Amino acid sequence: MKSETCFGKVNQQPLTQYDSEFEADNDVEFIKSQYNKELTPYNCNRCGFWHLSPTNRQTPSKECMSCFDGNGNTKQAYGSKLTAKQRAKILHEEQGKKLRVYQCKFGNGWHLTKS
């Protein structure tokens, strides 16, 4: 089933949504065997369903309930500096954004910032 709320970052097409990690994992195995593509399932923070992402784009994060961006939204916290740097690199390549990585002052991981 295609999502009504979530779209691919590169092609802007609706993402396929899965009801469970098990269902998404099954498609990962099928796609790998048929198309030799490396995908990873992830649980979407926006819609609550599962989607697939190219493994090299997967940068798990969680909401940091202690830190907020300039618009008052909670910031994403990455579990390691390396993961945060990978997300910054992806955003730079796709959107031209120059971001730097810094450690959360509340100990919740690593954040990205424009300044």
Shape: globular
Order of adjacent strands in the largest pleated sheet: 1-2
Average pLDDT value?
Answer: 94
Alpha carbon gyration radius: 15 Å
> Any low-confidence stretches, pLDDT <50, length ≥5?
none
Helix count from the secondary structure assignment: 2
* Helix and strand element order: EEHEEEEHEE
Roughly what percent helix? 25-40%
Write the layout of secondary structure elements.
Blueprint: E1 2-7, E2 14-16, H1 21-35, E3 39-43, E4 50-54, E5 61-68, E6 74-78, H2 81-95, E7 100-103, E8 110-113
Antiparallel strand pairs: 1-2, 3-4, 5-6, 7-8
Task: Explain this structure.
The protein is α+β, with helices and mostly antiparallel strands and 115 residues long. It has two domains: 2-57, no CATH class; 61-113, no CATH class. The chain is built from two helices and eight strands, in the order ββαββββαββ. A two-stranded antiparallel ribbon has the order 1-2. It has a two-stranded antiparallel ribbon with strand order 3-4. β1 and β2 form a beta hairpin. The longest helix is centred in the N-terminal third of the chain and has 15 residues, at 21-35. The model has no long low-confidence stretch (mean pLDDT 94).
